[in-house]
User: Fold this.
Amino acid sequence: MLSILEKEIINNGLVAAFALVGFIVLISGFISRKLTYGRLQGSAIAILIGLALAYWGGIYSGGQKGLADISLFSGIGLMGGAMMRDFAIVATAFEVQPYEARKAGLIGILSLFLGVVVPFIVGASLAYCFGYKDAVSMTTIGAGAVTYIVGPVTGAAIGASSDVMALSITTGVIKAIMVMIGTPIAAKFLGLRTPRSAMVFGGLAGTVSGVSAGLAATDRRLVPYGALVATFHTGLGCFMGPSVLYFATKAIMA
Amino acid sequence: MIIYGTALLAICHLLGIFLGDLLGKIVGVQTNVGGVGIAMMLLIFARMFMEPRGLLPKPTEAGVTFWAAIYIPVVIAMAAQQNVVAALRGGYVAILAAFGAIVCCACIIALINHLEPKSDVDPFADGPDSADSAAVNIKPLA
Assistant:
């Protein structure tokens, strides 16, 4: 009996994922109301549960994709994969007020540039402090501090070693997770109230997964504005990393 | 028909990432440049064009809004497949670099956002006049 059930769950992975996530949302709503009296948003708790499950899945399977590496939960990989994530993000644009989005045009672009350059400088400087003193390694780790996609793209383009690449990706993943958890906590400090503020946040915090999850846990209505800017962040980073930023680092280190 | 909305969303999505890839090729990077952002703008334009012409009846709209609402569950599923184990084992450089980058950016975000003129108007208010009334009612308090 149990083996039949297991087989059906594996064969209907996506459907099983819908059920599992629905259950997580139900539990987190309950925790939010009863244990935190609504102070911590249900979706923030649900994302934390997701991360905890990802940790457990990673330990259990030894893989790199968290819970999705366990065959019983492989549907999670499809549901939370890039295709569904991007499809749902695009759909949120339906709630954008074009007037509000236009108001933040220039400041959005400025924050995009800052969002690439500032993390890069911090990441590259820290890499230097920890003994990665060649321009290639510094650039790759600095690019990883931008996002976990910019890191390996930059590293591959300028010929970084694989351990530096791994470090760079890890930096980006940690950043995304910190943004997911930290955003609802720091929402007041960050001034996240308006569409404009969400766009500034999207440009500076970068990392689509971090921004979208962080905003979702703060105020759902802010998501499309943040995501609209953040999706350009990775592209800009991949553009600047192997070119301007690498040449600048090389010039400073020479 | 509800599928019209979902199909509209799918077309905007595909066209957006196609243009993003094209843009990436043109500027010479091996990645998609803002494809999802372009798709979002296409959807915004599509709505601005179709709504006044009565081309977006309720069922069609529902074909898009369902996916917008499923967004948070998708994010939860996304969180559940992050490489959290590697992130926690990443060592000091990765943790410090990520943390330092976030703290610096957070301060800049806070600075920019607290310079924003305060407004009494709810920016999320719906209705055809909301844009005009928002433009009139901005009162700089700070």
Remarks:
- Chain B has two domains: 1-81, 83-142.
- Chain B touches chain A through 81 residues (CB under 8 Å).
